[in-house]
Amino acid sequence: MLKVSYFGSELLSYAVVFTYFCVSQRTGAKVGILLSLSRVLLLIAKWAFHLPRPYWIDPRVKGLTATGNFGMPSGHVLSASVVWPSIAAALRPGWARWLAFFLVLLVAVSRVYLGSHFVSDVAAAWCLGRVLIWFVNRGGKWLPGSRSESCGAPGTRTVSAALTGYTPWWNVAFIALGALLLIGLGLMAQDYGLNAVRSELWAEFASNARNPTGLFEATGEFLGVGCGWVMARRWAGFDASGPWWRRIVACVYAGGGFWLLPSLVELLPMERSEAVRCVVGFSLEAVKNYWLFLIAPWILLRIGVLNPSAEGLAASGWKQTGQAG
Fold first, then answer.
1. What's the angle, vertex CA 173, arms to CA 312 and CA 251, rounded to 5?
2. pTM of the model
């Protein structure tokens, strides 16, 4: 069950990299933003509900995995329920949708089995995941690059349609403002959790429940993905349907830098206070996702590993001559 839980945690970052370079650049960006938003939403919800985990209140329940934050909702299920169905929708075959459904179900079962969550925790996470997907796909349609001009009511412009009228730098400013708003909402929820009397009953278990570092890391991830994507549309648009060996090389190259950056930061001598951890976590997540979504594909396009997409050719003035393929 611990291995099954990886489908709701570590494996999701690999899935984002694979989708971005091997399935669809746009879908990969969408999944990356969904994942980052799910992590922000998770902390806001945990601090707002400040509810216990099963083994916190019943000694008969054995917690088989160490956790130091509140129970509702389940982070593994929330992230899995936005990533796997979105990838399956891009792949389109019916078996992909069923596979995504069973992956999310297995993650939910594993979290309950391990004593980390009540059934209500995983159900709430699934519902939040569906709302988040609906907001991105139907309600907001704000992801830059959408060609849709309306959202439901005739004559109503989507946020995406409005953003495409601005330069990439204005889009970056809007995304940065969104990141600041998410931090503000998160800190408000954290303050609410700090004043919650019930949480003191589980002080020995919830020692790390109000740590704000995760909030800054998640918003930094959102900033890096969003800024990287809107700039990649202008300067690093590529076609993810080329030969498989090129896609794998791109995954290894971009993913290698993505996972190497945190290790390099750990080698730097610095004070490990809470404020420093928040700043470093925010900056690191922003930089490594900016690398993944913009810098790495820009380099791979220049050295001929990736082919520019038709949209990228039109936006950046790329010459097909001399490029890969």
1. 45
2. 0.83
